[in-house]
Amino acid sequence: MPEYSQTGLNPLALAFAVCLGLLLLLLPRRYALLPLFAGACYMTMGQSVNVAGLNFDILRILVLIGWLRVIVRGEFKAIRIGSIDKAMLWWTLSSITIYTILWGTSDAFINQCGRAYDAIGLYLLFRALVRDVAEIIKIFKSLVFLIVPLAAFMLLEKVTGRNAFGVFGGVPTITYVRDGVLRCQGPFPHSILAGTFGAALLPFFVALWWQKKGQILAVTGVVSSTVITLTAGSSGPVMTCACAILALCLWRWRFQMQLVRRGIVFGLLGLQLAMKEPFWFVIAHMGVFSGSTAYYRAFLIDQTIRHFSEWWLIGTRYEQPWAPLLTDITDWYVRVALDGGLLTLILLFVILKRSYASVGRALRLRVHRSLPTQRCIWVLGAALFAHTMTFLGVWYWDQNIVNWYLLLAMIATVATPIYGVRKQPQVVPGTSDAVSAQEPEREPEPAPAPAWPLGRFSNLRYQNACYR
């Protein structure tokens, strides 16, 4: 993990943090998460304060303010615990426990508690603030207005070679150049992380194309996301963007994803038989810009698999690299394996598996809903696929965690809807007066699909025809 300087809070950053904190407390619930995104987009990790040895950057401070809000307003009470929520809690607990056992120090425990604060704090905060698909669409629209200025700053950095966010510390003032390519990074600690942030938002903006009067916002968001991806000058974000587009193109086969998954498995088996090296070395051929380290990432996965016996139980301290220069752990799956062993890695895969299953379940439950609603849910799956592939080349220890945990929270929301509350009259025994009673408001049950003599597959064709 690259190091960044701890500069404290300068007056400008302090004023910015105070404004975001007030907005977080005062904005309506559906817009309350926007200050968190603004903090991720326009403030570096170099602006932080140290409290009793604990490091609080602006994002962590905003999470604390956000939880103050949801507790005071009672917004957390609307959360319905689902399978993704449970998997997140178990994964976090496993990460803290095994990493502490591995290193056996209080510093290791504090370090993992900080990561757990980021993960659970952001995830559950977003779960409390996001309630349904309609609000998710509004979030997509709002993110467009936040991403446009960031794209402008990245483009300015590309033209001038100077980073405007350098005044806050944590990022260089002069843009880094590799093999003649400017690698712009804006407020992010690394150019790959900056490009990934923009690329991962692309599916959200594509979803706006099918919303009422959302075409202009969709084009603006897609262009801004593309600008951030390309100005970063890194191959990883470009591949993230390509994976998102590939997943979006599978929309027409959304009810046949089991066949698609089987096709992927057989395709990987075919690559294994045809290639001289293991199939994961396909990653080595995915470089886009000059100076790409795609082969390094494939080699890192290969060495991790070969040294399985060293890390499967409680991870490994990795004090002695498995190969010369193999010191930078850029793969998140490998990072989780080395820090938490096989159990923590499996729990991470459980989170991903349940998230994909939740997207499919949400689509099936809403098969008779409007086409824009279905596409919005599918976009969440496309973004999840983009992140899943991105983790092969980078791990999030920066502002990207806002994007990642918001996505998981939105998927959990559409899978386990948080119903509102409505008042219905209830007659008190012995009187004729009606008083209001609190009863959960449920979504109406979808009408049963018509029976067809050819069975389930012809039924799916009928559904596709209705909503195409």
Structure description:
It is a single chain. With 468 residues, the protein is mainly α. The protein is 60% helix and 6% strand. It is built from 16 helices and 6 strands. The chain has helices spanning 11-26, 34-42, 58-73, 83-103, 106-129, 133-160, 191-207, 215-231, 235-249, 257-274, 294-306, 308-311, 332-365, 371-390, 400-415, 456-467; strands at 48-51, 54-57, 176-178, 181-183, 421-427, 434-440. The strands form 3 sheets. The chain has a two-stranded antiparallel sheet with strand order 1-2. The chain has a two-stranded antiparallel sheet with strand order 3-4. A two-stranded antiparallel ribbon has the order 5-6. A hairpin with a 2-residue loop joins strand 1 and strand 2 (54-57). Helix 1 (11-26) packs antiparallel against helix 2 and helix 6 (133-160) crosses helix 8 (215-231).
Overview in brief:
The protein is mostly helical and 468 residues long. It has helices spanning 11-26, 34-42, 58-73, 83-103, 106-129, 133-160, 191-207, 215-231, 235-249, 257-274, 294-306, 308-311, 332-365, 371-390, 400-415, 456-467, and strands at residues 48-51, 54-57, 176-178, 181-183, 421-427, 434-440.
Protein traits:
mainly alpha, two-stranded antiparallel sheet, disordered N terminus, disordered C terminus, two-stranded antiparallel ribbon, 60% helix, 6% strand, 468 residues, globular
Structural class: mainly alpha
Strand arrangement in the largest pleated sheet: 1-2
Query: Helical percent range?
Result: 55-70%
Task: Count helical runs.
Answer: 16
Question: What integer is the average pLDDT?
Answer: 86
Q: Report the order of strands and helices.
A: HHEEHHHHEEHHHHHHHHHEEH
The outline comes out as globular
Strand content: 5-15%
Q: Which spans of ≥5 residues are poorly predicted at pLDDT below 50?
A: 1-7, 418-468
Describe the largest sheet: 2 strands, antiparallel
